[in-house]
Design brief:
The chain contains 16 helices and no strands. Helix 4 runs antiparallel to helix 6. It starts with a helix and ends in a 7-residue tail after the last helix. The protein folds into two domains: about 200 residues, no CATH class; about 170 residues, no CATH class. Helices cover about 85% and strands about 0% of the residues. By secondary structure, the chain is mainly alpha-helical.
Length: about 400
């Protein structure tokens, strides 16, 4: 997710909180957290692998794209069935369940939109994505502001979100159709099962890692709503919105780091020297950001969400960006060294710890429990990464 999209979502959440209060913000955050695993199930890691596949076979790009779109349509049917079944068990209030059903209509357009975004990235035509995201973000902010000011409640805002997601997907489709002469009904056979199986096999490692990461950052919100209430979710959402924006900084550094190491010899001294420099940069940058936000937490919360309880939550959670910045660099070192299984194992252990801590702490500490468990689990994850990283460096002399 780019900085512009994050900025628009941040402003939208502030408008929602200021107008409708903690309960509405909490319900929106809960819906977003609950929908995310199902959205990722529709994607099945295809958006990541599609860039690689279309880059390797540009002449077959439209055929690959069409097959991926058809596959996501099939997956969205299965995901919708799972979403409906899950919601009957999770949401106890019929009103919340019905509203979540409407929110869930974003499954298909979001999945198809992510596919077109990946196709544009494979063609290195990022300007189209930028303008689509800017337009979507601007419409989200101004339309939600107008509706909230006119007195409309959360159901109308949810409908707006679904509409804007659909319009964004249609726009991406039309742009790609014009730029790449993509015709859905004439771009190869109806559905190539062999190609679909190969695509799923390629995307599976990305899917497993992504799913573990999503569960790590979403299950805690669902536990908080189940064990406390939506208002507590609103408090945590207010604090975590700042942390989400801060997390863009480490990803920018990693984005320049991974292309630099992609062509290096696996587990080489050169690789580890560059990794060491990147880790020091990540530490300095993330530490500076954490200190600034910690000192300004009172002012930031008061001028935006105006939920006083969120200040303490923010002051605890903001430190989690430091271990995140460090281990996000090592994730790509492990990828480059063919140690993807290590990534999966570490993320699975971190998810388990996070769930246990939240289950134990939420009843007594509410939203603060999520900040504590997030900091503890991210630190645990970072320690595991560095422990295994030391094993890698032993085979590359002259690094430490």
């Amino acid at each position: 997710m780019n900085l512009g999209t994050l900025g628009a979502l941040f402003v939208f959440s502030v408008l929602l909180a200021r107008t409708l209060g903690q309960e509405a913000l909490g319900l929106y955050a809960l819906f977003t957290a609950t929908l995310m695993p199902f959205s990722y199930a529709v994607d099945l890691g295809q958006s990541t692998s599609l860039v690689q596949e279309m880059g390797r076979a540009p002449a077959a790009g439209n055929r690959i794209l069409k097959n991926t779109l058809l596959l996501k349509m099939l997956l969205s049917v299965a995901a919708t069935a799972g979403l409906l079944l899950f919601s009957f068990f999770y949401f106890q209030k019929a009103e919340e369940r019905s509203l979540f059903f409407v929110f869930g209509l974003m499954l298909l357009p979001r999945g198809l939109g992510a596919t077109f975004e990946a196709a544009f990235r494979s063609r290195q035509k990022m300007a189209f994505l930028m303008w689509a995201n800017v337009g979507h973000g601007a419409l989200l902010v101004f339309a939600s502001w107008g509706l909230l000011r006119a007195g409309y409640a959360l159901p109308t805002i949810i409908g707006l979100l679904v509409l804007l997601e659909t319009l964004k997907t249609v726009l991406l489709w039309l742009l790609y159709r014009r730029e790449e002469n993509f015709r859905f009904f004439s771009s190869g056979p109806a559905f190539d099962r062999a190609l679909a199986r190969a695509s799923v096999a390629t995307a599976l490692p990305f899917f497993v890692m992504g799913l573990l990461g999503i569960l790590h950052s979403r299950v805690d919100v669902m536990l908080l709503a189940a064990l406390r209430d939506n208002a507590e979710v609103g408090v945590f959402s207010a604090a975590s919105s700042f942390v989400k924006v801060l997390r863009v900084a480490p990803s920018v550094i990693v984005a320049s780091f991974f292309p630099a190491i992609a062509g290096m010899q696996k587990n080489s001294a050169q690789l580890h020297k560059l990794a060491a420099k990147t880790l020091w940069a990540q530490l300095a940058f993330s530490l500076s950001l954490a200190v600034i936000i910690f000192l300004l937490a009172d002012w930031l919360i008061a001028t935006t969400y105006d939920f006083p309880a969120a200040t303490t939550v923010l002051r605890v959670q903001v430190w989690s960006i430091i271990p995140l910045a460090l281990y996000s660099t090592l994730v790509y070192v492990f990828f480059q060294s063919d140690k993807s299984a290590w990534n999966v194992g570490i993320l699975a252990a971190t998810l388990l710890l996070n769930v246990i801590l939240n289950y134990l702490l939420i009843p007594s500490r509410g939203a603060l429990a999520l900040a504590i468990s997030n900091l503890a689990s991210e630190t645990f994850c970072c320690v595991l990464y560095f422990s295994l990283y030391r094993r890698l460096t032993r085979a590359a002399p002259g690094v430490f």
